[in-house]
Structures are given as structure tokens and as C-alpha cells.
Amino acid sequence: MSLGNAIISFDVPTNRETTQNQAFYFSDPLSLTNLLESISEKEMIENRKEMKRIANENYTWEKIADDYRHLFNSLLN
């Protein structure tokens, strides 16, 4: 995501959560094949931008460290 790549992901709750339901999802080999054959270049470009935005907002070391700091502080109080 942070490299600006489009995300094609197996359809499980964790993957949907971390990509904010904005990736392309498949559930079996046939649905993956169909997905790969149907995604347009425009959709890929838009997905790359969206995945980069999600990564920049949610998955930087600064953000992750801050989230852990808040978690640990809440556990200590």
C-alpha cells in the first residue's frame, strides 16, 4: 500500500479492515481470474492512489507508535 501499488486481496475481514473496503477482493481462484480480467487501467490507477492515501494516513511508523503509546498509557491509568 505505501508503495502506491493496487491491492488485490483475499476476501477476509482483516484484509477488508486494513484496506478500508477499498481494495479489490477475491474469494477463490475463479473469482481472482475474473477480477484480474475485468479490472480496467483506470480502476487500477484510482486504487493505487486510494491505497497510498490509506497507508499514509494509517500505517506510518509515527502513527503506529503513537497508537501504541496511547494504548499503553490507557492500560497504566
Q: Report the C-alpha radius of gyration, rounded.
A: 16 Å
Shape: elongated
Per DSSP E runs of 2 or more residues, the count of β-strands stands at: 2
Give the proportion of residues in helices: 55-70%
Number of helices: 4
Strand content: 5-15%
Described by strand count, sense and barrel closure, the largest sheet is: 2 strands, parallel
Counted up, domains total: 1
What do you see in this structure?
By secondary structure, this protein is mainly α. Helices cover 65% and strands 8% of the residues. The chain has four helices and two strands, in the order βαβααα. It has a two-stranded parallel sheet with strand order 1-2. The longest helix is centred in the middle third of the chain and has 18 residues, at 41-58. The mean pLDDT is 96.
Blueprint of the fold:
Layout: E1 8-10, H1 13-18, E2 24-26, H2 29-38, H3 41-58, H4 61-76
Parallel strand pairs: 1-2
Looking at this protein, list some descriptive labels.
single chain, 77 residues, mainly alpha, two-stranded parallel sheet, 65% helix, elongated
Summarize the structure in short:
The protein has helices spanning 13-18, 29-38, 41-58, 61-76; strands at 8-10, 24-26.
